[in-house]
Design brief:
The complex is a heterodimer.
Chain A (H helix, E strand, L loop, with lengths): L1 H30 L6 H19 L3 H23 L8 H23 L12 E4 L2 E4 H23 L1 H11 L1 H6 L4 H26 L7 H15 L4 H21 L2 H18 L12
Antiparallel strand pairs in A: 1-2
Chain B lengths: L1 H4 L1 H20 L2 H26 L7 H17 L4 H23 L4 H21 L1 H4 L5 E2 L6 H29 L1 H11 L1 H6 L4 H27 L1 E2 L1 H4 L2 H14 L6 H15 L8 H15 L3 H11 L1
Antiparallel strand pairs in B: 1-2
Helix pairs in contact in B: 2-3, 2-8, 3-8, 3-9, 3-11, 3-13, 3-14, 4-5, 4-6, 4-11, 5-11, 8-9, 8-11, 9-11, 13-14, 13-16
Classes of the chains: A mainly alpha, B mainly alpha.
Chain lengths: 286, 310
């Protein structure tokens, strides 16, 4: 029964991880930019949700939508005003730029919120399933994470904007010739990446303590998930997220929590060497 | 730029090294410390320039090399090895590490390489935290303090760092003039074309990666002896990983003198202006990075040579 609990924990973690990585993967795939801001976006979403809950008594799951909207605007503006100017330059430039922006945001959050870990306590009770205990707040967070991921998938497949994003990913120049305003699509894509991060942050705040010192940890997880699952597709992020959730849950059961993070990184490095396209990697962002 | 890369550039560098070496005789211990940092960061920047500047690979593994050097040097020193041998030993360990890993991760390009190189530092940091029996874990590791009083120790480390900086500079000059430097520039411009015309890209890249590691290893070890205490978070700091490429970008990537100019400008800026605003330190660094990328692409050297060319 111990393993039942470990697997259940892995799945709950994995759902969140998929949601964490899907925005990062979208930005990387479409814009060809490694968004070093992603971890801080998640934590910013978490903080906004926390303060809405603490001061305004807003339920985190209700706060999720406005928080996501705020993050979308931030992301849109960052891309539209700043990153778009260097978008055609090499990796080093774009990565360093988002790294620099991340330092500004990180510093601002540290000053504004202080690094003390804060956590939302919902206390919804637990679900007993055989010998496996599932806290309801975690179950809800995982379910919502999967729903958000599914919504993104549908938006990309069916909406006009979604098709434009996919078209730009496939061929930037051809998309421009078809009348797509590429820079605007870039800004929307980056905005969606930040939106997903903010929404995840709201969910993370329900499950984990929120503190600025874990931004790097979340960013690292986004790297690992993208490489495991394969870059540039929603299913890839889903598979990678669930895989990393299971790997970490099992590894931390066998070896310990810090070792679990190490195992994740090592699997990523090995996969980079032998299968850089990931488990379900393919070209178009479908 | 050729003007500054030639004999005039060497003269400027020579004068700079003499000025730094003279600080113990003409200035207070505070300036000796600054001079030591100037030499240390110049050497780190010169190292990164091999892989990031000449070869054009977005390497973010400076902290991995530095931290590995710090830990291996400290462990050798604590095992009873003479300090100098411990530093050389650390440089060798780090070079071997870079050479072996280089063959693996240099097959990756662009973003994948960048992420793999960032992950190296994370992996090493986690190992240093977990392997408490050897590395002291999260509590860190004490290194034997050198006997001889603060003035003497300050000089020892100033001249050590200057020595490593000089070695890195001479290596850069030699690489810049050799077939290796030419090949690396070819790879930077178009790797597939370089491969087609017969540049052994795998070996060249691995060489550049190893060159970018060896001095970082020695500096890490010397730094560990200097501060006499190391911890995983400080040794494998992500900030160091970012600062060093930014210094090179500030000076002028792929040039001989660029890393020296860039690191000097950066350290002086850091010490004089924003060390006074500790709360905003990271944010100011972030702003500097953004301004640098938008308004000074190519670095200070290119700006100077463009001005004088008109």
């Amino acid at each position: 029964m111990e393993y039942g609990q470990v697997i259940a924990n892995g799945l709950m973690l994995g759902g969140l991880y998929a949601c964490i990585a899907v925005g990062f993967s979208l930005v990387w795939g479409v814009l060809n930019v490694i968004n070093m801001l992603h971890g801080s976006f998640i934590i910013l979403g978490g903080y906004l949700t926390f303060f809405a809950w603490l001061h305004l008594k807003v339920n985190p799951l209700v706060a999720l939508a406005p928080v996501a909207a705020v993050l979308f605007s931030i992301g849109f503006l960052v891309q539209y005003l700043l990153v778009n100017r260097v978008i055609t330059q090499p990796v080093l430039t774009t990565l360093t730029l988002t790294f620099g922006l991340d330092m500004i945001l990180y510093n601002a959050m540290n000053l504004a919120f202080e690094a003390t870990p804060r956590r939302i306590v919902l206390d919804l009770g637990r679900l007993h399933l055989g010998g496996v205990i599932l806290p309801y707040d975690r179950v809800v967070a995982m379910a919502l994470a999967l729903v958000l991921t599914a919504i993104l998938y549908l938006v990309l497949r069916t909406s006009r904007t979604g098709r434009a994003i996919v078209a730009v990913r496939m061929d930037r120049d051809a998309a421009a010739l078809m009348g797509i305003r590429v820079n605007r699509v870039y800004a929307i894509t980056f905005g969606i990446g930040a939106l997903m991060a903010g929404a995840c942050g709201a969910l993370v705040a329900v499950v984990f303590p929120i503190t600025t010192s874990v931004t790097g940890l979340f960013l690292g997880k986004a790297f690992v998930i993208c490489v495991i699952g394969g870059l540039g597709s929603v299913p890839g992020a889903l598979v990678g997220g669930l895989a990393l959730g299971m790997i970490e849950s099992l590894a931390s059961f066998w070896f310990g929590p810090q070792q679990a993070i190490l195992v994740g990184f090592l699997i990523m490095l090995v996969l980079l060497m032998v299968r850089p396209t990931g488990l379900v990697g393919k070209k178009g962002y479908e | 730029m050729t003007r500054l890369g030639g004999r005039a550039g060497h003269l400027v560098f020579g004068a700079w090294i003499l000025l730094l070496a003279a600080t113990p005789f003409i200035a207070s211990n505070y300036f000796v410390k600054i001079a030591t940092f100037l030499a240390m960061y110049a050497a780190l920047a010169l190292s990164w320039n091999f892989i990031g500047g000449y070869t054009g690979y977005p390497s973010f593994s400076t902290a991995a090399f530095f931290g590995l050097g710090a830990y291996s040097g400290a462990l050798m020193q604590n095992a009873g090895l003479w300090v100098g041998f411990a530093w050389i030993g650390a440089a060798l360990v780090v070079s071997a590490f870079a050479a072996i890993l280089g063959f693996a991760i240099l097959r990756l390009r662009g973003h994948y390489f960048a992420i793999a190189s960032i992950a190296l530092a994370d992996v090493l940091m986690l190992i240093a935290s977990i392997w408490a029996g050897v590395t002291g874990g999260g509590e860190g590791l004490n290194v034997k303090i050198m006997p001889g009083g603060p003035d003497f120790i300050g000089r020892v480390f100033l001249y050590t760092m200057l020595g490593i900086m000089l070695a890195a500079f001479v290596t850069t000059v030699l690489v810049d003039r050799s077939a290796l430097g030419f090949g690396l520039r070819c790879i930077q411009q178009n790797e597939d074309a370089a491969d087609m015309v017969g540049v052994n890209v795998t070996r060249y890249k691995a060489t550049a990666f190893t060159l970018s590691a060896v001095f970082c290893g020695a500096i890490g070890a010397a730094y560990a002896s200097w501060v006499a205490y190391i911890s995983p978070v400080d040794s494998f700091s992500i900030l160091l990983t970012l600062k060093v490429p930014v210094m090179v970008l500030l000076g002028g990537p792929g040039t001989v003198l660029g890393p020296v100019v860039g690191s000097a400008a950066f350290v002086i800026l850091e010490e004089t202006i924003w060390a006074k605003y500790l709360d905003y330190h990271q944010a100011v660094l972030g702003v500097v990075i953004v301004l640098l990328l938008f308004f000074l692409p190519g670095g200070l050297l290119r700006m100077l040579s463009r001005r004088s060319g008109r």
